[in-house]
Design goal:
This protein is α/β, with parallel strands linked by helices and about 300 residues long. It has a single domain, classed as Class I glutamine amidotransferase (GATase) domain (Rossmann fold, 3-Layer(aba) Sandwich), CATH 3.40.50. Strands 1, 2, 3, 4, 5, 6, 7, 8, 9, 10, 11 and 12 form a twelve-stranded mixed beta sheet that branches. Strand 6, helix 6 and strand 7 form a beta-alpha-beta unit. Helix 1 crosses helix 3.
Length: about 300
C-alpha cells in the first residue's frame, strides 16, 4: 500500500531511496479510492528512526495508507526537536473523535517502572480506551504490548533476571488462528530487547486471548484477542539491521552491564558481521495485519 506522508518528513527521502512506494498528499487526492487511515502513537525516544522503520513495513502493497502520528502531551521527548513534533504529530485531544482503520502503539524505554508511575500513563489509558471503540485493529509493540495487556486484561509484567537481548527463534503455537502468520515458516526469528516479560500462564488462562507464537524458551511472542481487534508483539520485528548493535554499543559506552546480543553477530562475535534473520517475516506480518485484520474488517465509511 503506498503510504501517504508529508514530503518534508525525514522518512520520505530515506524510503524514496529504498524504492518503498510512498505518495505525497497532492498525488493521493487524484486517485478515486479511500485510503486506509492508520494512527501511530510513537513512544520511542528515536522518533525519526522509528517512523522510518514502521513506514517501511506499511508500504509497497496495492492500497493507499494515510498515516497520522500521535504524541502524548504529558511528556516532552528529549531526543527530538520540538519543531518536528509540532510539524508531524497530533495531540489526542485533536483526534479523539476520529475513527481509524488501524492503530500502532510502539514500545517505550520505561519498562522497569510500574505502569502507574509512567509519566504519561493516565493519558495513555485514555488513548487505549479510545482504541476499543474508534479503531478496527490495534497493533501493540514490546512495552506497548505489555501496557495494553495490563490495561485491557489486568495482566502484569515481571522483571527478567537479565535483559532478553538478541534474535530469538520463535515457533507458531496455534495453527487455527494463524491468519496473521499466513505464509510464515514453522519457525522464524524476532529481535527482542527488554528487561521484563509476561507470565505465559496468565495469557493461556485468559479466555479472551490466544498465543500465536512463542520463543524457544517458552516466552509469549505474538498474542491476539479472540475478537481480533487487539494484537500484541513482545518483540521488535520493525528493527533495522543495526538497531541492536547501537543499543549494545550505547550500553557499553555507559558501563551498563550488557551481554552480546544472542544470535545476532556471526558466531556471536561482535567483531564479525550482523546476520539479518527477521526482515522477510517482518514485512509479511505487517502485510497480513493490514490485509486480514484492517482492510478486510474495516467498514468503508469510517
Amino acid at each position: 500500500m503506498p503510504i501517504i506522508i508529508p514530503e518534508n518528513l525525514p522518512a520520505y527521502q530515506v524510503l524514496t531511496e529504498e524504492n518503498i512506494f510512498i505518495m505525497s498528499l497532492n498525488q493521493s487526492v487524484t486517485q478515486d479510492i479511500r485510503p486506509l487511515e492508520i494512527l501511530i502513537l510513537n513512544l520511542m525516544p528515536t522518533k525519526v528512526i522509528t517512523e522510518t522503520q514502521l513506514l517501511r513495513l506499511l508500504g509497497n502493497t496495492p492500497l493507499q495508507v494515510n498515516i497520522t502520528f500521535l504524541k502524548v502531551v504529558s511528556y516532552l521527548p528529549k531526543n527530538i526537536q520540538e519543531e518536528h513534533m509540532l510539524n508531524f504529530y497530533e495531540e489526542f485531544s485533536h483526534i479523539k473523535n476520529q475513527k481509524y482503520d488501524g492503530f500502532i502503539i510502539t514500545g517505550a524505554p520505561v519498562e522497569n517502572s510500574p505502569f502507574e508511575e509512567v509519566e504519561y500513563w493516565d493519558e495513555l489509558t485514555q488513548i487505549m480506551e479510545f482504541s476499543k471503540t474508534n479503531v478496527t485493529s490495534t497493533l501493540h509493540i514490546c512495552w506497548g504490548a505489555q501496557a495494553a495487556l495490563y490495561y485491557h486484561y489486568g495482566i502484569d509484567k515481571y522483571p527478567l533476571p537479565q535483559k532478553k537481548f538478541g534474535i530469538f527463534e520463535c515457533n507458531i503455537s496455534n495453527e487455527s488462528q494463524n491468519k496473521l502468520l499466513r505464509g510464515f515458516d514453522d519457525s522464524f526469528f524476532v529481535p527482542h530487547s527488554r528487561h521484563t516479560s509476561i507470565a505465559i500462564n496468565d495469557i493461556e488462562t485468559n479466555k479472551d486471548l490466544i498465543i500465536l507464537s512463542k520463543t524457544g524458551d517458552n516466552d509469549a511472542n505474538i498474542i491476539i484477542s479472540k475478537d481480533k481487534s487487539q494484537i500484541f508483539l513482545t518483540g521488535h520485528l520493525e528493527y533495522d539491521k543495526d538497531t541492536l548493535y547501537k543499543e549494545y554499543i550505547r550500553d557499553l559506552s555507559k558501563d551498563i552491564p550488557i551481554n552480546i546480543p544472542d544470535n545476532y553477530f556471526l558466531n556471536d562475535d561482535p567483531n564479525k558481521e550482523i546476520i539479518v534473520r527477521w526482515r522477510s517475516h517482518a514485512h509479511l506480518l505487517f502485510s497480513n495485519w493490514l490485509n486480514y485484520y484492517v482492510y478486510q474488517e474495516t467498514p468503508y465509511k469510517l
